[in-house]
Design goal:
The structure holds 2 protein chains of 2 kinds. By secondary structure, chain A is of the alpha/beta class. Chain A has a single domain, classed as 3-Layer(aba) Sandwich (Rossmann fold), CATH 3.40.50.10420. Chain A is built from 6 helices and 11 strands. Chain B has a domain of about 180 residues. A 6-stranded parallel beta sheet of chain B has the order 1-10-7-4-2-3, sandwiched between helices. In chain B, a hairpin with a 4-residue loop joins β5 and β6. In chain B, α2 packs across α12, α3 crosses α12 and α20 packs across α22. Classes of the chains: A alpha/beta, B alpha/beta. Chains A and B meet through α1, α5, α6, β8 and β9 of A and α2, α3, α4, α8 and α9 of B.
Chain lengths: ~210, ~475
């Protein structure tokens, strides 16, 4: 008998006379708390409360120009694959974008799949590159305002229903999704809050109002 | 396997209070802060509705556990992950050992996992001469000290800032009065190199989503994301009770658990891991292994009453609010899971005799019941295990007579409160010793004066 069948057998015996409990339905069936503002306002409020920064621009070109100025203050920059597309589409000249290894740079630029108002979270996917999202001490993230979802549930379902190349039968999530809801922090040393322990200690969200 | 010795609890707790009185202050300060944050976070939402929902989804998942585990396995395989099943700690160690040997692994970075603690993973890897590095800051400190976690969320909660300053001064040469920022920067630098060099990352799993085959992990530091993103192999150790049916469910549970554990709306990093790197991904592990672990969980599931404790999401709220836990921190409990939750899952997972006297490590004040995000009836289950202990002759005769009367009374809250009110007016000195429930207790202690207010009342009013 394999461990698998032994475990499943023991579960079935344990449950044989147990009354089954029904699923109460989606977490979406009732709202946790209604925010008075719109999703973008709520995202901004939640993200800033968690120690993140938010800037907003009318167009991608304006946003890209701002990011260009921002990263110019650092020696080396690493840009995620999807974010590079955004920058190259709109900013000239292009030479300044160097494909530097994220472990050696001070700032990383990424493109989020979307964001969540309810929790103040950026939804990060591996198509953009996970190292650029995690290794540099400063992380700058583009997100389209149209993809700021009200609830976490909506955001995750939208991502699940997205079709990616290489998806098999049925729709599925990317290989690994990371929700980033502010800078890295820890209170493990004497219960004092410290930012930037392993992940980025500074996170700047750049909202693009219309693509 | 990590040491399991709850039997030493009475001696170990007395000794901790005597030898390390400062731990009481450190733990009390930390848990006070956690309690304030959690209560504020609960107040921001309709926490009663959230808790009911959490209870019901978990009970649903547990009463359909076989189906959901099979579904999770099928989906994980479709995602390209590998799935293993471990009945015991030894099985899990062996499975991990095989992966280590297959992939020629020489160094491992670990994300905080209480299950790996329960299974004795670090000790086993060290036997295999694999370099094991804990990367959660608290776990890292514990590892350097050769200590054990004392809390399931804040493993180094028993250590003060001064303790950490001394340690980092010796290890890294940071100033003896270095700020937490300076200490954390030193740890970040040292650990960064290990992250980049590691062959394997090991994590636990907060939730396992059956529908999508997702291992979900909540954290604040980013070390879990790094451990599961950088090394070429990722192994997730997941207890079989961590199942939730759907992706929608995990969007609720991450918020409920975060609020209960740290008072945050969501942990700063939340990982949803489906499988290894795909062709269009820039980076990520080449292989993802999920080890589904029983190690006593089906034994607990088989108990018609105590199975409900498998709903636990390991938020630590019950230990933070527990007036017994905060006197000593988690070490004297002698098991991976201290405090109220440990006292009710240990008898089911390890066997009652092995877990004695943990069900007695409580005043039955019930503060934990109000805080539990999945409404585990902790007090009821403490009494249940005590009754069983009496039935099985695991406790002394005098105590059992008292407990039977006490249990009867406690099951009827009206009588319980009335009796409490009455007893508070009887002097506990010589007369108190005549009370059967107290005589065993008073034998080893001097009886205190009764308080004019009940404990439950004082606790609610906020005594220290």
């Amino acid at each position: 008998m394999t461990a698998r069948s032994s475990i499943l057998d023991r579960i079935r015996i344990a449950l044989a006379n147990r009354e089954a409990v029904s699923h109460p339905g989606s977490f979406e069936g009732w709202r946790p708390f209604i925010h008075s503002g719109n999703p973008t306002e709520q995202f901004t409020e939640m993200f800033e409360k968690a120690g993140g920064e938010v800037v907003s621009f009318k167009t991608q070109a304006e946003a890209s120009l701002w990011v260009r100025g921002f990263v110019a203050e650092f020696d080396k920059v690493s840009v995620g694959k999807l974010a590079q597309g955004r920058l190259n589409e709109t900013v000239e000249p292009r030479e300044w974008i160097e494909a530097t290894d994220p472990s050696e740079v001070e700032v990383g630029v990424s493109l989020a799949y979307g964001a969540v108002a309810e929790t103040g979270s950026l939804i990060m996917t591996p198509q953009d590159g996970r190292r650029a999202q995690l290794l540099p001490p400063v992380h700058v993230v583009f997100v389209d305002q149209a993809k700021i979802y009200e609830t976490l549930c909506e955001g995750l379902l939208a991502l699940k229903n997205e079709i990616y190349p290489g998806d098999g039968e049925g729709r599925s999530l990317p290989s690994a999704v990371g929700l980033h809801s502010g800078p890295s922090k820890s209170a493990d040393i004497g219960q004092v809050l410290v930012k930037g322990v392993h992940g980025p200690g500074r996170v700047v969200t750049v909202i693009v109002e219309s693509k | 396997m990590s040491s399991v010795n709850p039997q030493r609890y009475p001696k170990a707790s007395a000794q901790a209070l005597k030898d390390k009185p400062e731990v009481r202050n450190t733990v009390t300060n930390s848990t006070d802060l956690a309690n304030k944050k959690r209560m504020a976070a609960y107040q921001q939402v309709e926490s009663d509705t959230w808790k009911d929902w959490g209870r019901d989804v978990k009970s649903h998942a547990l009463t359909h556990l076989d189906q959901y585990l099979e579904q999770a396995e099928t989906q994980l395989l479709a995602n390209g992950a590998k799935v293993h099943w471990a009945e015991t700690a030894q099985d899990a160690q062996k499975l991990l050992e095989n992966i280590v040997l297959d992939h020629d692994i020489s160094s491992v970075v670990k994300a905080k996992s209480m299950l790996s603690e329960e299974l004795g993973i670090n000790e086993h890897l060290e036997k295999l001469e694999v370099l094991v590095r804990e990367t959660d800051l608290g776990e890292y400190i514990i590892q350097i000290l050769g200590d054990r976690p004392s809390h399931i969320v804040g493993p180094a909660m028993h250590l003060s800032l001064e303790d950490c300053q001394r340690l980092f001064h010796e290890k890294f040469g940071t100033p003896i009065d270095g700020s937490p920022e300076i200490l954390a920067a030193a740890a970040r630098e040292a650990l960064r190199e290990e992250f980049l060099a590691a062959d394997m990352g090991i994590s636990g799993g907060n939730f396992l989503v059956a529908e999508t085959g997702t291992v979900a992990l909540i954290e604040n530091e980013g070390n879990i994301r790094l451990s599961t993103s950088l090394p070429r192999v990722h192994v997730a150790l997941v207890g079989i009770e961590k199942i939730v049916p759907r992706l929608e469910d995990v969007s609720g549970f991450v918020q409920l658990t975060s609020r209960a554990a740290t008072g945050q709306p969501i942990g700063n990093f939340f990982s949803l891991i489906q499988g290894p790197k795909r062709d269009d991904d820039i980076d990520g592990p080449e292989e993802v292994h999920v080890i589904l672990v029983d190690n006593g969980r089906t034994r607990l599931l088989a108990d018609d009453k105590a199975w409900e404790s498998l709903r636990c999401v390991r938020c630590g709220a019950c230990m933070n609010i527990c007036p017994v836990y905060r006197q000593t921190g988690g070490h004297p409990y002698g098991w991976t899971y201290p405090g109220p939750i440990g006292a009710i899952i240990a008898p089911g997972m390890l066997g009652l005799e092995e877990a004695m006297p943990l069900p007695y490590a409580s005043t039955l004040c019930g503060a934990c019941v109000d805080e539990c995000p999945v409404r585990i009836p902790i007090t009821e289950l403490l009494l249940y295990w005590r009754e069983k202990a009496v039935e099985e002759g695991l406790t002394s005769a005098i105590e059992s007579a008292g407990l039977k009367a006490y249990t009867k009374a406690a099951e009827q809250p009206g009588i319980f409160r009335a009796a409490g009110t009455m007893l508070r007016h009887i002097p506990l000195g010589a007369g108190g010793r005549a009370l059967p429930i107290l005589s065993g207790w008073v034998k080893e202690r001097s009886a205190p004066k009764s308080s004019p207010k009940s404990f439950m009342q004082q606790w609610k009013d906020g005594i220290k």
